[in-house]
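Researcher: Structure prediction, please.
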Amino acid sequence: MKWLLIAIIVASTSVGEVLQAIGMRRHGEIRDFRPGALGRAAGTLARNGIVIGSVVAMAVSFFAYLGLLSFTSLSFAVPVTAVTYVIETVLAKYVLKERVNWLRWAGAAVVLCGVALVSL
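Model: Predicted structure follows.
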C-alpha cells in the first residue's frame, strides 16, 4: 500500500505541476496584484480547464499524501516523494520543451540518489 500511495503522489503531483505550467502559459503573466485584478484573474483561471485539471491532480496528491502519512514517518515520506523533481525535470524537457541545462540535470541526479538512499 505504501508504494502504491507513493506512485499516486508522484504521478499526480508531476501531472498537476505540468498542467499548472501549461495553463498559466496560456493564461499569460499576472502583472497586477491589486485585489480587483486578482479577483478577475482568479475568475478567469477558474474557467480554465487545464488549471482545473491541475487543481484536481494536486488534490489527489494531497489526499494520497495524507494517507501515506497515516502509517509511515514524515522522514520517509518527504524524501521519497521528492522523486517528483526528477520526473518534472524530464517532463519540462520533453513535454514543455524547456531548455534544461546540465546543472539542473545534476541537481535532479542528486535528488534521485537521495531518494534511493532513503528508500533502502
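Model: The mean pLDDT is 91.
Researcher: Thanks, that helps.
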